[in-house]
Amino acid sequence: KKRVFSGIQPTGNIHLGNYLGALRNWVNAQAEYDNIFCIVDLHAITLPIDPVELHTNTRKLAALYIACGLDTRYCKLFIQSHVREHAEMSWIMSCFTPMGWLNRMTQFKSKAAGNLDSVDTGLYCYPVLMACDVLLYQTHYVPVGDDQRQHMELTRDLAQRFNAIYKRPVFTVPEAQIREEGARIMSLTEPTKKMSKSDTDLNSRINLLDDPKTIKKKINRATTDSLRLVTFDPERPGITNLLTIYQVLTGESQQEIEAAFAGKGYGEFKAALIDRLVTTLEPIQKRYYELMNDLPTLEGILKQGADEVRPLAATTLNQVKEVVGLG
Ligand code: ATP
Ligand code: MG
Question: For L-tryptophan, which residues are the binding ones (predicted)?
Fold first, then answer.
């Protein structure tokens, strides 16, 4: 089986974008692959975060992985900082990463938001750590959302460059797996921006743990337009985003959806979307609260995951050290 690796940062509440762009695809394809899914807490400290919040977010995210359907029969689940090899490899790879390559990363520019002198260097080096996460496990496929396309290109470039320098296939060159639908879920309030955990506007996203009342409120407030036509239209990003969410959740085609809502208003469509969201999230939330009520079991799963992946990571790291001349 081919190796799959991916991760989510425990920076806040997991939202619909993370679910439709990443997690849901991991779950749907898990039986086909040899999967490793990580909670990337080392990435979460690239911007200031409260320690207690980071610790609880990490457990919550692990519980959500399982609640969404990740099954330990197919997947190894672990916390990034529990496997030291990630941090160690990251230093070595940063010595093989041209600054010009990192200067081109658009996520750094938008997250630094103009504070280039005061932002910590971890944010700048984030893509190197991400590359190491993937390369340590000789990964074939990395299922992610569209926003990670550039970081995945960098990961491939770093792997190829390293292999070329030492004239040995030390790293498997991984491929990003970005699905057509749901790869870029937009903010509900500013539909030209992607939905993000770190957006300060709480109404911009549906969290997987939102209750039905909150979902209803957020969808009803979501930005649309005055045309009142329930159709997919790039010129109208608000309604198109809501329709895309509906499309991924129902599995219906764009034509089928447009036909079903022809002549109907946004109110009627939003009611149908709210209904879908509530029925999708209800079972996930139920399992989530069960898991959170039994933290020792959850910690056990994460410990076992880390114990299982550590030797895999160590094998790659040792090879890297050997070819570089370290150790
Ligand atoms: P942050 O704002 O802290 O960066 P985030 O919402 O971007 O949080 P990440 O942990 O960075 O979430 O990303 C986890 C996964 O979710 C990645 O695979 C990413 O591509 C995917 N993802 C994030 N936002 C979206 C979105 N709006 N639509 C689809 N996929 C997304
Ligand atoms: Mg992100």
Answer: 133
Joined together, the tokens standing for residue 118 give 């005061």
User: CA 211 → CA 206, 220, 272, distances in Å?
Assistant: 10, 14, 16
What are the pLDDT digits (tens) for 160-190? 999 999 999 999 999 999 999 899 999 999 9
**Residue keyed to tokens 């991916």:** 6
- Alpha carbons 46 and 49: distance in angstroms, whole number: 9
Q: Which domains does the chain have, with CATH numbers?
A: 3-178+295-324 (3.40.50.620), 202-289 (1.10.240.10)
With a 6 Å cutoff on the Cβ, whether 123 touches ligand 1 is: no
**C-beta of residue 265 within 8 angstroms of C-beta of residue 242:** no
pLDDT in tens, 240-288: 999 999 999 999 999 999 999 999 999 999 999 999 999 999 999 999 9
- 190-197 CB contacts, 8 Å cutoff, 24+ apart: 190/223, 191/223, 191/237, 191/238, 191/240, 191/241, 192/237, 194/17, 194/145, 194/147, 195/15, 195/16, 195/17, 196/15, 196/17, 197/9, 197/11, 197/12, 197/13, 197/14, 197/15, 197/18
What is the ipTM metric for this complex?
A: 0.99
Rounded to the nearest whole angstrom, what is the distance from the C-alpha of residue 196 to the centroid of ligand 2?
Answer: 7
Annotated binding site for ATP: 9-11, 17-18, 145-147, 185, 194-198
Whether 274 lines ligand 1, by a CB cut-off of 6 Å, is: no
| Rounded Cα distance, 88 and 288, in Å | 33
Interior/surface letters 12-23, b for 16+ CB within 10 angstroms, e for the rest: bbbbbbbbbbbb
Q: Is the CB of 176 under 6 A from ligand 1?
A: no
Residue 9 CA: nearest ligand 1 atom is: 10
